[in-house]
């Protein structure tokens, strides 16, 4: 089991230079967890793709449905106090700290490309490249 940041999901469903890494992370460990917040972040990115005319609305809804199916059973709430304590101690947003808090509670690594999270939480967060070594 690993915690994943929303960016890992985005690259799994939308071709990019990082998609290959998301696919390999999934093949190595498909048991992904994330705080419920991932849904809002994912929808917001997809909405941006739609508004920039990168995808049509049907493709947007399909991607959301696929991601929700993938993450079903792997979503959790996190302690607000823990999130705020983590955010207070770093320059990370409370959004980012939700992912870190979940990884800490579940005692798993958070796989992310987010440099702010990686810098602030090197004991908890790793890149997909490191995860795949």
Q: Can you walk me through this structure?
A:
The chain starts with a strand and ends with a helix. The radius of gyration is 14 Å and the shape is globular. Helix 1 (6-13) packs across helix 2 (19-28), helix 1 (6-13) crosses helix 3 and helix 3 (37-51) runs antiparallel to helix 4 (57-71). The protein has one domain: 5'-nuclease (Rossmann fold). It has eight helices and five strands. The protein is an alpha/beta fold and 133 residues long. The mean pLDDT is 97.
Could you name the key traits of this structure?
133 residues; alpha/beta; Rossmann fold; 5-stranded parallel beta sheet; 10% strand
Architecture blueprint of SSEs:
Elements: E1 2-4, H1 6-13, H2 19-28, E2 32-35, H3 37-51, H4 57-71, E3 75-76, H5 80-88, H6 94-106, E4 110-111, H7 115-120, E5 125-126, H8 128-132
Parallel strand pairs: 1-2, 1-4, 2-3, 4-5
Helix pairs in contact: 1-2, 1-3, 3-4, 5-6
Protein structure class: alpha/beta
Rg over alpha carbons: 14 Å
Number of DSSP strand runs: 5
Q: In the CATH scheme, what's the topology name?
A: Rossmann fold
Give a quick rundown of the structure.
The chain is 61% helix and 10% strand. The chain has 133 residues and is of the alpha/beta class. Helix 1 (6-13) crosses helix 2, helix 1 crosses helix 3 (37-51) and helix 5 (80-88) packs across helix 6 (94-106).
């Amino acid at each position: 089991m690993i915690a994943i940041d929303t960016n890992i999901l985005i690259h799994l469903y939308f071709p990019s230079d990082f998609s290959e890494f998301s696919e390999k992370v999934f093949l190595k460990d498909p048991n992904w967890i994330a705080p419920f917040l991932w849904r809002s972040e994912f929808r917001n990115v997809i909405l941006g793709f739609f508004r920039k005319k990168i995808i049509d609305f049907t493709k947007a809804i399909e991607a959301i449905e696929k991601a929700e199916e993938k993450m079903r059973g792997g979503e959790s709430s996190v302690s607000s106090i823990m999130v705020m304590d983590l955010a207070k101690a770093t320059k990370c947003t409370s959004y980012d700290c939700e992912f870190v808090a979940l990884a800490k509670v579940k005692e798993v690594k958070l796989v992310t490309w987010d440099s702010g999270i990686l810098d602030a939480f090197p004991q908890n967060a790793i890149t997909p490249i490191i995860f795949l070594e």
